[in-house]
């Protein structure tokens, strides 16, 4: 089978920037050294680029998980050009196709089933799906955003201005242009590229399938640390309209914190989250599935499987009762004075259901822990 034509511009960009980062930066560090201001600037620019992709390109524009003030959208648009990962319109269109056709080699732009190299960077080195390059029918909503279209129209100029202009201006101000171009320019760009690319590659290979096994996406706390929270990818692929990826308070997701923090500043609004009961049911369904697979070789498999199913059904029933009561309680709190609600029979029922759910959860955990 004949391979598609090589995209020489992409090959040149990735190769040249990598060589400067891998060879010139260490040589400069050994012969000249980098000071604290240069390292700090490189780190800040790396964070700016990364968050522009995760909070802007990904969660704002690709998935519409929240709305943002024009000033924040402009910052993300400039940061996206700085990250050099194509325009908002093109990136978001590709990403929507990825979610719609995940793991389908003929349609998913960076299908993980094509292997690590392909999903990480190979898909950008050849014209595998040239028909996609100018077709943005799946992003018509974004074409109504003037900032998106401004960035798309002037993308080349903006990338040059950001990737050359920012390191150059900092270098002139700081007094060391070469070090600034190497550290803030080349090294920062390469790190920005590959940490983002890890989401297409490693996050579909390495980690846990916490909520679904219908696609290759994985949850990985280590990757989340390097990708501003995007490592909780299994959750994201089943609940893609949630502005959070790490939904637990202890999960590292600075993109979530940024979006929520900006809400307090009136820069973001209409933050979307997934219903807690649906999230919990998806997690429990995966635990049940894994436990059932482990029990197949058990000497008393039939009896154990029956008990496991009974515990699961009982837990789901109590879960439904608990969330129904909570939904009703919240509705009543909106319609009545809080003091009246707290004295109502509904609150007593809610507390009782909460205790029953906790007891059933303990029983479930004890049973599944034995099978772990």
TrEMBL record:
Name of protein: Fatty acid desaturase
Gene Ontology terms: cellular component: membrane
Membrane topology note: Multi-pass membrane protein
Native source species: Thalassomonas actiniarum
Primary location: membrane
InterPro entries given in the database record: Acyl-CoA_DS, FA_desaturase_dom
Coiled coil feature spans: 298-363
Keywords: Coiled coil, Fatty acid biosynthesis, Fatty acid metabolism, Iron, Lipid biosynthesis, Lipid metabolism, Membrane, Oxidoreductase, Transmembrane, Transmembrane helix
GO molecular function: oxidoreductase activity, acting on paired donors, with oxidation of a pair of donors resulting in the reduction of molecular oxygen to two molecules of water
Domain Fatty acid desaturase: from-to ranges: 42-260
A family per Pfam: FA_desaturase
Compartments, record wording: Membrane
């Amino acid at each position: 089978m004949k391979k598609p034509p090589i995209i020489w511009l992409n090959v040149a960009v990735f190769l040249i920037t990598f060589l400067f980062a891998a060879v010139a930066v260490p040589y400069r560090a050994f012969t000249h050294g980098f000071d604290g201001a240069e390292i700090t600037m490189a780190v800040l620019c790396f964070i700016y680029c990364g968050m522009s992709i995760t909070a802007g390109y990904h969660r704002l524009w690709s998935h519409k998980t929240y709305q943002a003030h024009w000033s924040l959208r402009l910052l993300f648009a400039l940061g996206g050009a700085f990250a050099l990962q194509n325009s908002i319109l093109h990136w978001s269109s590709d990403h929507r196709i990825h979610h719609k056709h995940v793991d389908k080699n003929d349609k998913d732009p960076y299908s993980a089933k094509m292997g690590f190299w392909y999903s990480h960077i190979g898909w950008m080195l050849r014209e595998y799906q040239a028909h996609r390059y100018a077709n943005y029918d799946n992003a018509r909503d974004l074409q109504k955003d003037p900032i998106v279209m401004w960035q798309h129209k002037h993308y080349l100029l903006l990338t040059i201005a950001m990737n050359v202009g920012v390191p150059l201006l900092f270098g002139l101000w700081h007094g060391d242009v070469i070090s600034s171009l190497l550290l803030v320019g080349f090294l920062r760009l390469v790190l920005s590229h590959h940490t983002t690319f890890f989401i297409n590659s490693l996050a579909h290979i390495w980690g846990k399938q916490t909520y679904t096994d219908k696609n290759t996406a994985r949850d990985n706390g280590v990757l989340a640390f390097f990708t501003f929270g995007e490592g909780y990818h299994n959750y994201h692929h089943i609940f893609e309209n949630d502005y959070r990826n790490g939904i637990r308070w202890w999960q590292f997701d600075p993109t979530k914190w940024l979006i929520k923090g900006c809400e307090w500043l009136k820069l973001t609004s209409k933050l979307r989250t997934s219903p807690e009961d649906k999230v919990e049911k998806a997690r429990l369904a995966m635990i049940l599935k894994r436990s059932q697979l482990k029990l197949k070789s058990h000497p008393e498999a039939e009896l154990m499987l029956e008990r496991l199913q009974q515990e699961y059904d009982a837990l789901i029933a109590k879960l439904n009762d608990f969330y129904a009561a909570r939904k009703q309680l919240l509705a009543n709190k909106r319609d009545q004075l809080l003091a009246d609600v707290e004295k109502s029979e509904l609150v007593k029922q809610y507390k009782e259901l909460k205790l029953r759910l906790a007891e059933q959860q303990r029983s479930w955990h004890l049973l599944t822990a034995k099978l772990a």
